[in-house]
């Protein structure tokens, strides 16, 4: 690779997981000599030095969603509303960047429309596949035209995604759970009062302060730390490592970072499109990973549930997140850039 080779990295604007993943992987790709440019509706993070990742802020295309006309193009795409100024400017800017930057490839994390647009410009596409049922027409199209596909779960987790045609499934490589933190850095807190960390989330699937208060009130003998609305922290690593149990939703980043901390978990999937978290939770429930899967925050039996979870062997998370997912991703990108 040379420093003059450019890779585009499209980042979906909802939630924090896509952005965290792009920053993690973008730094790794830059270390190989690639120039990495993020393409996203998100603004450049204030703490991201301009000398690191390039950034192209795209116009939003989800305004006036309630009045959008034929937003799915007869069910063939996810979001392409007719006569939408933001969509037109967005796709025009992407096309201009593809023409001027002449990237070696584009990473889509995730947009089937962006994957299709890139391929229509003759630019190879590496698409990130999320867990869940991806058998709808837009996924069939976007993933179908992608040159390679990657998923951030272990190869032994064979039920994370469904609905892919055989031709696409054959191009899918499972890289393992991707965490911002190296598993070797985890260290258990000294013995004392048992601690539970509740990763409550930030989006529409976050537990409310009332729900968290009610849950904490049921946990006599436990020290409860809630990370969520009103108590958000950008770096939860020390809290995760000090906990005896973590209660979390089944988002990819959340599960990977709990796994990296080697802390047993209670995993409660949130209702998400395409059954994304339901697939992850079902996979965890069917395997040997140190997680108890529930449908909701436990009621009166909460102390017993946490006690049972605390008895699980946190080191068994090693097969979910071994710390090498980022290295494997770089290897996939290198092969594509080099034409292998």
| Secondary-structure element pattern, one letter each | EHEEHEHEEHEEHEEHEHEHEHEHH
Which residue ranges are poorly predicted, with pLDDT under 50 across at least 5 consecutive positions? none
Distance between the termini: 13 Å
Helix tally equals 11
Share of helix, binned:
25-40%
Known CATH architecture of the largest domain: 3-Layer(aba) Sandwich
Mean pLDDT: 93
By CATH, the superfamily of the largest domain comes out as: Glycogen Phosphorylase B
Query: Which class do the helix and strand fractions yield?
Result: alpha/beta
**Rounded Rg:** 21 Å
Please state the oligomeric state of the protein chains shown: single chain
Give the CATH level 1 class of the largest domain. Alpha Beta
GO molecular function: hexosyltransferase activity
Pfam family, one: Glyco_tran_28_C
InterPro entries: Glyco_trans_28_C
Organism: Nocardioides mangrovicus
Any chance you could write out the topology, listing elements then pairs?
Layout: E1 6-11, H1 17-30, E2 35-40, E3 54-57, H2 85-101, E4 105-109, H3 112-120, E5 125-128, E6 132-133, H4 137-145, E7 148-151, E8 161-162, H5 166-169, E9 172-174, E10 194-199, H6 209-217, E11 222-227, H7 237-242, E12 245-248, H8 252-261, E13 265-267, H9 276-286, E14 291-293, H10 302-310, H11 325-337
Parallel strand pairs: 1-2, 1-4, 2-3, 4-5, 5-7, 6-8, 7-9, 10-11, 10-12, 12-13, 13-14
Helix pairs in contact: 1-11, 3-4
In summary, what is this structure?
It holds the Pfam family Glyco_tran_28_C. The chain has helices at about 15-30, 85-100, 110-120, 135-145, 165-170, 210-215, 235-240, 250-260, 275-285, 300-310, 325-335; strands spanning about 5-10, 35-40, 55, 105-110, 125-130, 130-135, 150, 160, 170-175, 195-200, 220-225, 245-250, 265, 290-295. It has about 350 residues and is of the alpha/beta class.
